[in-house]
Every structure is written in C-alpha cells, then in structure tokens.
C-alpha cells in the first residue's frame, strides 16, 4: 500500500495542521457553541473505527449500546448535566476529583482516591489508543512495521507537546482552552467524515447500495448468524449503563463537558447536535462489519480492523488513507484530552498538595512561585504520557488484557454513585462516598480485572461478555448498597453543612480560617500572578479589617476561590490553613476567656499543691534570697527532719548546717573539705544557677539521687529520689553480665574446636567424593561406549531393541548417578559459579531442540519463543536448571504443550518461564516439591530420585536467582527463574552442525589415548578404530612419551592417571615436544569424571577442550568435528 516514509510524512503533516488550528483557536475569545458540541465528540476514540465493527460482528443489530447510553443522558438527564456544569463554573472546579472532593466537605482524601482510580482506569485506555495507531501502521504500510515504533514515539511526543502548550500554558485553571477546543472539534469532523467515506465506499462501490449489503449478508451462513444473533439483554444493558456513566466519570469527557463549558447556551445546542453526531458515527458500522465478514478472510484480518482492512485489501489508497487519518484523529484527540485531564487531576490532588506541604514554613519559601507550580503541572502531564507510552510498549503490546475498554470503563463507573447520588441526596456523607467507592473498586478487581489477568498471562479461558457484565453488576450494585446504608446510619453532620453544593451564598462566605490581612496578602503575592494579586490587594484596601487585624470572611472566601482556580481546592486549603491563627476578635468572648483563665489558674494552683504533696520524690524549693519556700512530706521523711524543723522563709544555710552535723555531706568530692567549706560550696553552686545531678549514700544505707535545677526568676528547685533498689538491680546485672561473658567465652572456645573438627570432616568428605565420583563414573563410561557401539553394529537385527534398551538403561543410570553427585557437591559447597554474559536464545534454543524428540515421544510439543536478551549467570549451572525444569514439565504433562520463553520483568531483570498444561500442583503440595527425594506422583512409573527440583532450587540459590512457581491443579504449572540482564553481549559461536557424518570421519588420523582404566581403554580404542583412526594407548606420563609420534592428530586424556600423574601435565608435555619438533599441535580433549569448575577453567586456559565422563559417542564426535573444522 504505502511506504513507511509516505505515512510518516502524511502523519506529521496532519499533526502540523492540528497545531495551526490550535494557534488559530487561541486568538478567539470564546468559541462558537457549535465548536463545543463537536468537541464532545472526543467520546469517540479509535474504538469508533476499530472496536464497533467487532461489537457489530458479535451482536448484530444490538451494536454500540454505549452510544445509546450517552444519547439517553442528553435527552432525559439534561438537567443533571446542566447542574454539574453550573457547579463547576460556580466553584472554579478543575477536575473530576476536585468536584467529588468538594462535595464531601472538601475532602482531600476522597479527591486523592478518585485521582488514583482515574489513573488506574485511564492509563491502559490511553495505551489502547497507541496500540490502535500501531495496528493502523501495520495495515497501511508495506514495510511491515519496520519503523512503526519510531512513528508512534513521535506521535506521542507531539501529543505531549500539544497538551503542554495548549493545555497548561497558564496557571489559571478557570481559563478556557479555546485552541484545544477548536482542535478537538476539527478532529471530530475528520473522524466522522473518515467513517462516512469508508461506509459509502463499502455500500456503493463494493456493493449495490446500503440495503444490498444486508441482502448479500442474508445469503451467507456466517453473516446470517450476525443478523440473527441472539444478544443477551443483560450484556446490552450493562453497556448502556457504562455509556451513561461515561458522560460523568470519564476524565476526558468530564473535562470537555463541564470544565470547558462557558454557559448553558452551549449545552442547549449540544443536547441535540451531539446525539446526531453519535448516530452519524453509527450508521455504517453494521454494513462495514457485514462487508468485512463477507469479503475478507477473518483468519487473516481481525474484525477490529475492518474499517481499514477493506480498502487496503482492495488497494483503494484514497479510502484507506482517509480511514487511517480518521482513526488517527480518534486516537490523538482522546489521548490529548485524557492525558491533560488526568495530569491536572494528579497535579492538583496529589503532587501539588504534597509539594506545598513542604513549602508552608513560617516564612514562605522563595520556591513558592507561580512558575514553579505551573512547572509541576506540566511535568505531571509529561509523566502521564511517559507512563502510558511505557504501558503501551511493555504491557499492552506483550500481554494485553482482553476487552480492556470495558475493564477500564467499569472501574471508572464506580465513582458514579458518589457523584450523582451525592449531588441530590443531602444525607450522603464522606464516609459513604469513601467506603462505597473503595468497595466497588475492590469487587471490580476480583470479578473483572483478576480473571482478565489470568487469561492474559496463564492458561485460563478468556472471560465472556456475560461474565464481565455479571462482575460489573455485582461491583456497581454493591457500591450503591454500601453508599445508601452508610449514609443512612452514619450521620456525620446536618445535611446543609455536609453538602457544600447545597449551602447558601451567605454561608459560603464563612470560612474556618482566622488570617491576618498582611499574611493573606503576602501569600496571594507569592502564588498568584502579578495582575491578579494586584487586584486582590486593591480589594483588601477597600475592606475593613477587624480590630485585631484579621481579614473579613468575604475576603477570605474570595482568596480561597482565587487560590483554588490556580492550584486546586486541596492546595488552596493547605496554604490557608498554614497561615491561619484561628483567633477571634470578639471583645465579649475575650472577656469570657479571661474569666475562665482566672478560674483555671486557681484550680491549677490547688492541683499543683496536691500533686507536690503526693509526689513520690522529695522536693524542696529555694527563692532568689536563698530561703526555703516549699517542700513536701517525702523530703522530710527522706532526711528524717524533726517535726516543725522546716519553716517557710528559713535560710537554706541552716538546713545545710543541720545536714552537715549529721554527717549527710559525705560525698567523695567533699572528703578533703571542712564542713564550712562544704556548705559554702553548696551555696556557691546554688547562686551560680547551674543545674547539677549527683548521688549520695544516706546514713541508713539508702542511695539518694539529687537533681537541682534553677528557676527562671531566680531560686532553685531540687528533687530527691531514693534509687537504692535500682542500684541493687544494677549491681546484680553487672554480676550477671560478667558471668554471661565468662560462659560465652567458654562456649566460643568449644564452638571453635567443633568448627575445626567439622572443617576437617568436610575436607575428608570432599576428597572422598572426588575419588568416588571418578571411580564410579569409569565403569559407566566404558559400559555406555560398549553399548553404543554394539547398538550401531546390530541396529537392523532382531537384537536391536535389546541393545536400545541397554543404552537407555545405562543413560538413566548415568543421569541418576550424575544427579546424586551434583546434589552431594551442592551440599558440600564444591560447586563455585562462574558468572558471565549468556545469550539466552542460544542456550534455550539448544535445550528445546534437544528435548523436542523426547517430548514428541509422549505426544507433546515444546514451543519456544525466541529472544535477543543476554543475562548474567553461570552457563553450565543455568543450563542444568532449565534442563531439569523442561524434563520435569515433560514428565508431568500427559497432553497439550510446553512453552519456554523469556518475559521482561523490569528494565534490569527478566524471567525465564517454563509453562506446561500438565497435571498441576495442589496448593498444599507446593511447599514440598523442592524437598529431597520427593515425587508427588509416586504411583506412576516416573523414573528418577526426586532430586531434579531440589537441584534446581539449590543451584538457583547458588546463582542468586529467585525461583517462583505458579500452578493450578488440572490446568498446568509455570516455573520462573529470575535473572539479571547483561548490558554487554559476547559474540556467539555458530551452532554446531548436528548432521550425522560418515562413520569413518577420522580416516587416516592418529589418536593418542591416555587412559589408565582398562575397560575404557578397550572401549575408546574400539570406538576410534570404527571411526577409521589409528590409536596409540598410554597409562601415564612415561608411557605417553614412549608412545609419542610426530604425526599425532588428536589427544584424548583422563585426568587421574597412574603413578600420581594427571592428564593436564601429560598433555602439556606432549604439546611442548610437538613445539620442539616443529610439528602442528594436536587437538586435545580432557575427558574425566572430575567436573570441578577449577579443573574446567584450568583446561580452558590451556586451550584444552573438556568433555565430562561418561563419554557419549555422539557428543565426542560433535566435539571433534567442531575442532577439526
């Protein structure tokens, strides 16, 4: 059809036209009522082109019920529309969240929750429009989306720029966006003309008229079913209800309907013009759907794309281009208005209030400026665009939710009861709105969202329209029920106070704030632009502040409306509350306060005296003249003063002398001082006004804590606290601490000894495992080689089945032994991971190819989704993990398929997923599957030890890869291995050619076999001889040098040899001799049962290939074939 460059040029040109129209509209003071009516067409998104045809294909004549709901609102609920528009103009409302929050006592919490619900519902809907743009590009371009993502990105960037320039140009929220309205009205005309032209082309060019489409459709069984489709009334009604709710609960529709409305005249014209527009958008929907089913292959073309697929299929470039631009206009108009409305909502109800809370210090910060608040709003709009674009790329493109439009709209409809019922019912309160909205959203998650997610990510069936409608009825009905019940039984306040929309104008002027006029004026100057703040200052000069300098209620009300129109209702209330003093200016009330304060003072004085008398500490008070003026009985008892000894006005020096005479001044710092010096020291300390704290041992053995504090007007107050019991406990704790430390030292010494014993035992175990592994593998290696060769020689005889069974049995024994050795090494900590960048496509593709034969033997198919992702891991261990998971999936899947693929979880992490449609795992058994020697289906003939998943878990823990399992009994299981993505990509070697070569592919080659095990010597010699090679055999270093010839092509060496020699040293000696003789180096393969990573690394560093025992003849042939190439 068109090249990608042509479409890019047309798209950018169309976007440029939109800019020009917006600039033209901004020059107009107020748009025509016709512009407002056409702008309401933002309700028709790209779904009008690419969704209605599917609905018509499913339900026949009962299509587009959502449009019917909107028409019913305009015809029969027009007074409600007028009332909401009037309230938005009256209260300077800037968003849907602002409207509902003001209704319920200016609740910031409800406004924030409404904003979050809108965010969750609108972002996927925005991404749906971006998906539509991608769909259109894939249909109309012949390059098959070669550059479609780039065009999509530029379209999104344009829409973001457009929304910021023409939607957030100024801080004033009440300013109408004339340029935006002209642009949306123009796009409404474009999408209407586009759909009409496609309909006319279908009916009068491809068919012989409008009714001929229905005549031809009646002749075909498939389309006859569409015309005679039995639609469910309940499904139809649910869509009609959603259409009604969309007029009030869709953020974009609320913005155009009510925020951009200038007067009631516009609404009167829109009452009939907008329904006519919707009818015109619907007239050709069913003919296009019927024509698509008649003319196109529905297996190739989706019913969603009929409006564009039909002209593309018949190569009519003009009609196809018209349909493309019409669909593009539907998508761009929706995205621009929805993102602008949502961005303003998020900024005013969430971001700006939080930011303002950090700025409301006693001295308002310099950053509290109009430009900064406007930048926050613009940044929020950009953020919404970015999130929607990310959702489009990473979620809706990879795992889209079916019927996402219905899902999003049914969530937004949960705000309808709080909005509409609360608009007329005075008893509706804040608790009812909060609980009903949250309960409706919760049931929406359970009945609608959760089943849709399961169908997109797992094997669950896609929810039917009937199931989704039932979920909507349950959530919406319970929402209304909770709203009514809570409103009736939770009476927060009288209705006139509870509903700000119902109070009179005189009551609106009353505010809960008491603000000094100068502070209010300073706040307005900080936040509001200069021209408006100057007008407010003139208003203050004309008003009369009260005697205490507080602003009048009418001035405060005007200030609140002014702030709300620029920063939203929540931000305005935060700023006014921050500078409010809540003081009154009534003189009689002030006198009443003084009287109450006097009574309170008298009461507090008596209460203080009673408290001092009964306080558990001793207290004494000295005035500035150093005389005793107050004390309590505890003080007298603590120091055993005689009765009537202490008197008010008694000089404190007499008390000190009496204490000294009884030996009470016996502190360590006083030992070298005379009694007179001790008394003078106390007096100087009190006069200096310094606080002090010290302990005294009383004559009766008690310990007294003495704390002295100076009084503000002079004098001193001293408290005396008997802490003898505390000191006793402290000493006991110190003794216990010392005893515990001694015990800890003793136990530490014992543990160190035990640790040394354990380390020695572990070392012995390690050596034993290495030796046992080597010795056990040798017989299996020889037996496997002999069995493989025997099977090849008698392959076409009657004994071939016996040898085939023998080979299989040995392979199973080899796998079980390898698994046991791996398990033991994991337990002993012998395996050390070597992490590097790994190409997942190379690893997974080879594994799937390897296991495809085994799967097909069970009647299964392994489906692999290719990927280009690289990760950080140990290739050998990761290969074993996925190998065990695929083996497990094949073992426990009786029919169906197995899926292996990679899912992006975040920017830096991915999941390797192995899914099967097998038997599944019961919830109570999920915690058991990783246990050692555990097999869930013991009654079945499942070969193995039950260690596969245990090894997966332990290797994953070693690699720090998380393992997750999800399963449903009878439906299947999914294992996920979470890995970190790699930024570096290493070159990948070409895949090996696995085609079998002729048996004598080593004809004329000389092989030096260095092996000390006789059985393996014989088996390997026979194998290489069958391949046409001449074999030289050695057992250790000396015999290898004796067998050396200068024409050796291949060296196969074991690691553990006779006479304590090792294969690597022997190979190095042979290679050194070849270098000395000036001959070419041989191909060297180290074949050993010792699989330690250190040995692999050592061999790799020397250029020696590694092949673990037991050796498979095919694996050895592939390795040598690769090396010889």
From TrEMBL:
Protein's recorded name: histidine kinase
Q: So what EC number does this one have? A: 2.7.13.3
User: Which organism is this entry from?
Assistant: Brumicola blandensis
Q: Which residues form the Response regulatory domain?
A: 1006-1124
Q: Which reaction is catalysed here?
A: ATP + protein L-histidine = ADP + protein N-phospho-L-histidine
Kindly report, in one word, the top-level EC class recorded for this enzyme. Answer: transferase
Instruction: Tell me what topology the record assigns in the membrane.
Output: Multi-pass membrane protein
Q: Name one GO molecular function term.
A: histidine phosphotransfer kinase activity
Which residue stretches, if any, does this entry annotate as coiled coil? 723-757
Q: What protein family does this chain belong to?
A: Belongs to the sodium:solute symporter (SSF) (TC 2.A.21) family.
From which domain of life does this come?
Answer: Bacteria
Segments spanning the bilayer are 6-26, 33-50, 62-85, 106-127, 147-168, 189-211, 231-251, 272-296, 334-356, 376-393, 405-425, 432-459, 471-489
The record's Gene Ontology cellular component field reads: plasma membrane
PROSITE patterns this protein is in?
HIS_KIN (PS50109), NA_SOLUT_SYMP_3 (PS50283), RESPONSE_REGULATORY (PS50110)
Annotated ranges, domain Histidine kinase:
771-983
Q: Which CDD domains match?
A: HATPase (cd00075), HisKA (cd00082), PAS (cd00130), REC (cd00156), SLC5sbd (cd10322)
């Amino acid at each position: 059809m068109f090249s990608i460059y042509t479409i890019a040029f047309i798209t950018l040109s169309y976007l440029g036209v939109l800019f020009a129209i917006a600039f033209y509209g901004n020059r107009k003071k107020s748009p025509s009522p016709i512009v407002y009516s056409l702008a309401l067409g933002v309700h028709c998104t790209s779904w009008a082109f690419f969704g209605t045809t599917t609905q018509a294909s499913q339900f026949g004549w009962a299509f587009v019920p959502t449009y019917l709901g909107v028409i019913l609102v305009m015809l029969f609920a027009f007074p409600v529309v007028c009332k909401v528009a009037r309230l938005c103009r009256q209260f300077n409302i800037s968003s849907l969240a602002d409207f509902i929050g003001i209704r319920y006592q200016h609740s910031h919490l409800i406004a924030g929750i409404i904003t979050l619900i809108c965010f969750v519902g609108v972002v996927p809907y925005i991404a749906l429009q971006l998906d539509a743009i991608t769909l259109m590009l894939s249909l109309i371009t012949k390059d098959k989306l070669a550059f479609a993502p780039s065009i999509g990105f530029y379209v999104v960037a344009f829409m973001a720029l457009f929304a910021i320039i023409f939607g957030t140009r100024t801080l004033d929220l009440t300013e109408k966006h004339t340029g935006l309205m002209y642009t949306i009205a123009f796009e409404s005309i474009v999408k209407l003309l586009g759909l009409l032209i496609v309909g006319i082309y279908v009916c009068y060019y491809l068919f012989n008229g409008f009714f001929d489409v229905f005549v031809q459709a009646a002749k075909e069984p498939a389309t006859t079913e569409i015309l005679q489709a039995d639609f469910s009334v309940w499904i139809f009604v649910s869509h009609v209800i959603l259409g009604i709710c969309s007029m009030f609960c869709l953020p974009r529709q609320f913005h155009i309907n009510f925020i951009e409305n200038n007067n009631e005249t516009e609404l009167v014209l829109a009452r009939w013009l907008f329904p006519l527009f919707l009818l015109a958008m619907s007239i050709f929907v069913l003919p296009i759907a019927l024509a698509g089913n008649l003319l196109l292959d529905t297996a190739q073309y989706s019913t969603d794309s009929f409006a564009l697929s039909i002209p593309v299929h018949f190569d009519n470039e003009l009609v196809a281009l018209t349909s493309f631009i019409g669909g593009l206009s539907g998508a761009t108009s929706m995205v621009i208005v929805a993102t602008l409305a949502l961005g303003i909502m998020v900024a005013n109800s969430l971001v700006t209030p939080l930011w303002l809370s950090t700025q409301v210090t006693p001295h308002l910060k310099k950053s509290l400026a109009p430009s900064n608040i406007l930048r926050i709003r613009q940044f929020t709009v950009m953020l919404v665009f970015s999130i929607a674009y990310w959702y489009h790329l990473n979620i809706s493109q990879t795992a889209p939710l079916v019927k996402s439009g219905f899902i999003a709209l049914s969530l937004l409809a949960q705000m309808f009861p709080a909005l509409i019922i609360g608009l007329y019912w005075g008893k509706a309160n804040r608790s009812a709105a909060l609980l009903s909205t949250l309960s409706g959203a919760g049931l929406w998650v359970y009945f609608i969202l959760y089943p849709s997610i399961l169908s997109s990510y797992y094997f669950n069936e896609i929810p039917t329209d009937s199931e989704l409608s039932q979920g909507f009825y349950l959530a919406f009905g319970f929402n209304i029920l909770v709203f009514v019940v809570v409103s009736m039984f939770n009476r927060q306040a009288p209705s006139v106070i509870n509903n700000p929309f119902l109070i009179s104008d005189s009551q609106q002027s009353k505010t809960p704030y008491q603000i000094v006029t100068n502070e209010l004026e300073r706040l307005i100057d900080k936040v509001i632009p200069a021209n408006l703040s100057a007008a407010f200052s003139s208003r203050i000069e004309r008003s009369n502040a009260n005697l205490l300098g507080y602003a009048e209620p009418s001035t405060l009300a005007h200030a609140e409306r002014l702030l709300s129109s620029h920063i939203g209702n929540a931000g305005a209330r935060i700023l006014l509350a921050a500078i409010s003093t809540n003081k009154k200016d009534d003189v009689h009330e002030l006198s009443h306060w003084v009287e109450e304060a006097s009574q309170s003072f008298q009461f507090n004085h008596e209460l203080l005296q009673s408290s001092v008398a009964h306080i558990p500490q001793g207290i004494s008070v000295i005035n500035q003249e150093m005389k005793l003026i107050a004390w309590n009985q505890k003080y007298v008892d603590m120091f055993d003063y005689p009765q009537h000894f202490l008197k008010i006005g008694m000089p404190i020096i007499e008390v000190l002398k009496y204490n000294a005479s009884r030996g009470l001044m016996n502190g360590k710092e006083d030992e070298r001082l005379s009694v007179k010096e001790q008394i003078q020291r106390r007096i100087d300390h009190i006069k200096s006004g310094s606080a002090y704290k010290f302990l005294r041992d009383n004559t009766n053995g008690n310990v007294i804590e003495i704390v002295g504090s100076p009084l503000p007007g002079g004098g001193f107050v001293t408290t005396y606290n008997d802490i003898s019991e505390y000191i006793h406990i402290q000493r006991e704790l110190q003794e216990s601490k010392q005893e515990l430390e001694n015990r800890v030292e003793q136990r530490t010494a014992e543990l160190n000894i035990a640790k040394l014993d354990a380390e020695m035992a572990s070392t012995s175990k390690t050596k034993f495992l290495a030796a046992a592994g080597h010795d056990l593998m040798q017989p299996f290696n020889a037996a496997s080689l002999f069995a493989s060769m025997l099977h090849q020689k008698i392959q076409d005889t009657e004994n071939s089945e016996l040898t085939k069974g023998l080979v299989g049995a040995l392979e199973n024994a080899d796998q079980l032994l390898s698994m046991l050795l791996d398990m033991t090494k994991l337990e002993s900590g012998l395996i050390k991971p070597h992490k590097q960048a790994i190409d997942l496509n190379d690893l997974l593709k080879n594994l799937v190819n390897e296991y495809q034969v085994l799967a097909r033997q069970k009647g299964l198919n392994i489906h692999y989704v290719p990927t280009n992702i690289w990760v950080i891991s140990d290739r050998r261990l990761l290969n074993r993990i996925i190998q065990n998971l695929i083996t497990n999936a094949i073992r426990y899947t009786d029919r169906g398929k197995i899926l292996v693929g990679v899912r992006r979880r975040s920017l830096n992490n991915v999941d390797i997923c192995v899914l099967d449609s097998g038997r599944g795992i019961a919830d109570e058994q999920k915690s058991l599957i990783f246990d050692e020697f555990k097999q869930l289906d013991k009654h079945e003939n499942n070969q193995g030890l039950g260690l596969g998943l245990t090894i997966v878990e332990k290797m994953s823990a070693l690699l720090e890869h998380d393992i997750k399992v999800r399963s449903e009994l009878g439906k299947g299981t999914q294992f996920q291995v979470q890995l970190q993505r790699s930024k570096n990509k290493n070159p990948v070697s070409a895949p090996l050619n696995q085609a079998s070569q002729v048996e004598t592919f080593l004809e004329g080659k000389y092989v030096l076999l260095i092996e000390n095990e006789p059985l393996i010597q014989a088996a390997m010699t026979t194998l290489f001889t069958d391949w046409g090679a001449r074999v030289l055999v050695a057992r250790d270093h000396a015999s290898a040098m004796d067998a050396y010839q200068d024409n050796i092509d291949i060296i196969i060496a074991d690691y553990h040899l006779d006479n304590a020699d090792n294969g690597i040293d022997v190979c190095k000696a042979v290679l050194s001799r070849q270098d000395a003789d000036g001959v070419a180096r041989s191909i060297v393969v180290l074949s050993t049962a010792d699989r330690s990573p250190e040995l692999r690394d050592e061999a790799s560093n020397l250029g020696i290939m590694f092949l673990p025992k037991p050796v498979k003849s095919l694996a050895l042939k592939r390795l040598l074939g690769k090396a010889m190439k």
